[in-house]
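== Sequence entry ==
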Amino acid sequence: MREKNEVEIGEWNRLVKDAYNSLEFLVTMHYLREHLPETGKILDAGGGPGRYTLELCRAGYDVVLLDIDPTYTAFAEEKIKLEPKSVSSRLIASVVGDVRDLSRFNTNDFDAVLCLGGPLTYISDETERIQATAELVRSAKPGAIVCMSVMGYLAMLRTVLSRVSEELIIPQYWELITEGKGNNLVQDRLWHFFRASELQQLAESCGLTTLEMVGCEGLSTGLFEATNTVAEDPIKWERWVELVLETATEPAIVDMASHILYIGQVG
């Protein structure tokens, strides 16, 4: 049995543990602020321990958090209870569930639907990824914004080079990397890594109109040490973040990013 809250705290801290990892959260929130409605009810599907849920509650949205792991939803509830009533009351529900089956929610139920941080990457089966995406779209109102972020295939290959190059000569991994249609084993689980074009095609096939695609780590992708070093100087960091945001939607940046954010609108 894992130590109480060990994994939950690790995931909660993932987006803020250093400057490099904070870019995923910072860039995602920047584009959410640009595209979300001013008010409304939002579904945070696959929201883990609730980092985005909390930020959205603080911004005045009514939020439903859904995650497959009950320890995450319980962790989120406890975190949000510590907030002022004006914030904590914005959490409508914290629900244990799977993004592949949102039947508990009515069709056209939400003013915006989010699936951030990579839940679709954890679904290795293509048919099930389509099912999950279709469910996200079904639960959103006509005209609503749907935002999904996934882990990038090209960034995964760079990680193989820099951290686990043995995969290049182990047949099991090499076959997945080259013939597995974007799949690879991560801690003995099969994950699916996306090209930007694949994510866009998936979203549009399920009824979304593409508004924007974003490379969350942007120009910093893979540059852990350099990014964290620049962040030690507040002026340099401010200017670097400005550059990251200015270039985050360029196609080359999007396709190379560790996390690719898709923003679409329900027709």
About this structure: The domain at 6-151+194-266 is CATH 3.40.50.150 (Rossmann fold).
